[in-house]
Amino acid sequence: MNTPQTLAFGTEAAHLPIKKMNIQRRALLPNDVSIEILYCGICHSDLHAAKNDWGGSTYPLVPGHEIVGKITEIGSEVSKFKVGDLAAIGCIVDSCGTCSHCHEGEEQFCESGWTVVFNSPDKISGGMTYGGFSEQIVADADYVLKMSDKVDLAASAPVLCAGITVYSPLKHWKVGPGKKVGIIGIGGLGHMAIKIAKAMGADVTVFTTSPSKMEDAKNLGADHAILSTDKSAMKDQRGFDMILDTVSAKHDVNVYLRALKVDGSLVLVGLPNEPLEIGAFNVVNGRKSFSGSNIGGIAETQEVIDFCAEHGITADIELINPSEINEAFERLEKGDVKYRFVIDLKK
After folding, report:
1. CB-CB contact of 179 with 242 (8 Å)
2. What is the pTM of this model?
């Protein structure tokens, strides 16, 4: 089935709102699948891209990289899926497939550069890719994930970005029973990190600037909640094996570096617009590390989908209609969401 056009929701410029638009999807190639999009999460990165906060946005732009849907057609060479299967797409829809990182299942580090699901040069069709704020998408089956029919699909959509973004570093830094883990911030990323770290068996402490979120942290499964503006309480924080920093605004990371044990790591997954300053003694004393992590590869994304399904982990979401995207963006800028907006594309 050739569907050259599909309804989408995007923007024509950084200063303009999200609106309905028609976009063109490619005709099905032998290893492609066509997916009817049922739900798509809204990540802060979608907002940054739409507003061109990081530079490099190309318009028209259709955001969306937490995509869950149903296979409607498969190419002649596809054996991984059949029509009617539930499927998902995250950030990555293409990579070189030949470099050492791709061979190791870490397409996010592809030496030739991986193709982002939206606002990325499309090596197959030309132009730029369009994301999941749309009714349909065509993608290479090798970059499409399998979804269980036993999960809440809408609440599982954020696993495709928020879930993998926190799962990958938690796994890489070997979080598990006996490990003391800190999580900075309770938002889209932070609330998923609490659930996943607890499912891994760690002792979890949440740091938040919001007194109103102290109880939320405990309800999400955290063992401890610390108000990071309380200097006395922060001085008492010591011995963390790892602290995961999910904050996307400028903040002081040094107080957290001091809370690490010897050889501990502070790992950044948030994306602040401004540089963060690190005091040399805070890493030299104790042989501590300040590191970063960026999503995960296709195999690891499938792994976190399966992990969350096995442990009953979903995001806390607010389901919205496409007509409410602009309002959701405004609320997201203010931090007024607990903890992820998800668009119902069936409405």
Report:
1. yes
2. 0.94
